């Protein structure tokens, strides 16, 4: 429960909030909390101490110093390191404090808290379902009351209320299942596009094949992911066991649909894809308005080449996501309350392809009869399988290596892609907010 203003004022005067890990998300939280009038302290690795001298909150040298004086400690470190970091600082936690974390998959985080924190401490965890450069307003924020009194939970919820996000209450198990369905498989699709373009040695904005609104969304989101830190995507996929199954299903769906195309098994392909369409989109109301359309996305192009009419495209990446949702029994709309901006965009372009009259039929026809996309699709299948293997091996080193190679390939365009991507996301989020009647989020 968010407390009354007078009670929040008392908490602000008496409680100290500690953030361990002042990277992108930790810094966002620490700045916002201190701007809202909370007493905040934080730390990063000791060797980074000097970097934070201009911050408006107290910066300490390490997590022991943060833990011993904070009434609420939030760990905002790499998922890969969470157990190690919690083990290190947990014994220094102040008596009676509440502890939480921001990692994207909660199983490893909660396990670390249970193993290393003294039993008398409360655990309330959280997850902002957006990146550090998105306005927090109206975005989903998951709150997990794992082991806590109402007073502890109210402290956490009242503190987080300054972000103006939409609070979603889940257990850690529900959180991990939903984010595997939404985030992990979304990232797998866009990561695979990047690797496929890289392996084909082509910048998609340089070839007339990739023109049009849907292609702009694919390119901008893929490059946005490759502009980020690899550990964010590695952590949320590798530490979440449900994500392994989803990503494998995605790779299998890509393989099987592509196999049907190259064998020219049109009837089987259509049967399978239309059954998936029915499972995923069948219950949408007749008057359902599409979130996205090709015209809206047309303006967000990185290409200098003027559009020259429609190019044939099988849209294998989009066919495969609907097929995998269908095979896994996932209805993505059930998770919309817990969706990230990238997931909404992925769902938006997929919905556009599947629900615009005639478009799905056209792309299946292209997939079966045109060969111009075969090489791209083959590379896409290989990339999806590669990501699935890397995630299932749980190998962060391999993940980093694969990610960074493709990141380097796209480096010359990352700055411009982020600018265009930010504009695109801003427009889409405004549209989401208008549609849902909630607060309008902008870009920071
Ligand atoms: N970025 C995003 O879009 C989102 C990320 N998350 C999750 O939030 C968490 C943080 O992500 P993000 O901020 O992006 O990542 P960053 O890499 O930017 O931040 C993590 C920070 O923690 C520091 N750190 C590592 N070990 C310690 C330690 N022992 N003591 C103090 N600081 C330490 C890191 O230092 P160093 O770099 O030197 O290792 C780094 O500065 C991750 O678990 C991520 O999955 C959640 C929502 C969105
Ligand atoms: O929107 C997305 O999917 C992002 O890529 C940003 C992101 C990354 C990690 C999270 O835990 C939450 C959001």
TrEMBL record:
Pathway: Amino-acid biosynthesis; L-tyrosine biosynthesis; (4-hydroxyphenyl)pyruvate from prephenate (NADP(+) route): step 1/1
One example GO MF annotation: NADP binding
Keyword set, alphabetical order: Amino-acid biosynthesis, Aromatic amino acid biosynthesis, NADP, Oxidoreductase, Tyrosine biosynthesis
Record bears the keyword NADP: yes
Root EC class: oxidoreductase
PANTHER family the UniProt entry points to: PREPHENATE DEHYDROGENASE (PTHR21363), PREPHENATE DEHYDROGENASE [NADP(+)] (PTHR21363:SF0)
Protein name in the entry: Prephenate dehydrogenase [NADP(+)]
Taxon lineage: Eukaryota, Fungi, Dikarya, Ascomycota, Saccharomycotina
């Amino acid at each position: 429960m968010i407390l009354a203003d007078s009670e929040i004022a008392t908490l602000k005067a008496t409680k100290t909030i500690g953030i361990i890990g002042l990277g992108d998300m930790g810094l966002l939280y620490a700045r916002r909390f201190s701007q809202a009038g909370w007493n905040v302290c934080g730390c990063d690795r000791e060797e980074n101490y000097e970097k934070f001298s201009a911050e408006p909150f107290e910066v300490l040298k390490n997590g022991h110093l943060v833990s011993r004086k904070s009434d609420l400690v939030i760990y905002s470190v790499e998922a890969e390191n969470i157990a190690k970091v919690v083990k290190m600082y947990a014994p220094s936690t102040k008596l009676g404090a509440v502890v939480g974390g921001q990692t994207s998959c909660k199983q490893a985080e909660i396990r670390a808290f249970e193993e290393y924190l003294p039993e008398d401490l409360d655990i309330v965890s959280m997850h902002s379902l957006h990146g550090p450069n998105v306005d927090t307003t109206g975005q989903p924020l998951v709150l997990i009351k794992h082991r806590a009194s109402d007073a502890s939970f109210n402290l956490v919820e009242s503190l987080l209320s300054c972000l103006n996000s939409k609070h979603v209450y889940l257990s850690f198990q529900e959180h991990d299942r939903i984010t595997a369905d939404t985030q992990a498989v979304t990232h797998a699709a866009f990561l695979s596009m990047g690797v496929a373009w890289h392996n084909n040695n082509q910048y998609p904005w340089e070839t007339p094949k990739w023109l049009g609104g849907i292609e702009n969304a694919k390119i901008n989101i893929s490059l946005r992911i490759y502009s980020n830190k690899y550990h964010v995507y590695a952590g949320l996929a590798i530490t979440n066991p449900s994500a392994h199954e989803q990503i494998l299903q995605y790779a299998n769906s890509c393989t099987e649909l592509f196999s049907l195309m190259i064998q020219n098994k049109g009837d089987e392909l259509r049967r399978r894809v239309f059954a998936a369409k029915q499972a995923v989109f069948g219950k949408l109301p007749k008057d359902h308005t599409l979130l996205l359309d090709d015209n809206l996305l047309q303006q967000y192009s990185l290409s200098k080449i003027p559009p020259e009419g429609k190019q044939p495209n099988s849209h294998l990446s989009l066919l495969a996501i609907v097929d995998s949702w269908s095979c896994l029994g996932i209805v993505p709309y059930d998770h919309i309350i817990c969706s990230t901006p990238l997931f909404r965009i992925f769902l938006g372009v997929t919905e556009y392809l599947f629900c615009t009259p005639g478009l799905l039929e056209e792309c299946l026809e292209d997939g079966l009869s045109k060969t111009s996309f075969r090489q791209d699709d083959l590379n896409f299948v290989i990339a999806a399988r590669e990501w699935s293997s890397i995630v299932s091996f749980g190998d962060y080193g391999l993940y980093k290596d694969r990610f960074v190679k493709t990141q380097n390939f796209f480096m010359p365009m990352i700055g411009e892609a982020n600018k265009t991507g930010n504009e695109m996301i801003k427009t889409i989020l405004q549209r989401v907010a208008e549609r849902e009647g909630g607060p309008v989020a902008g870009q920071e």
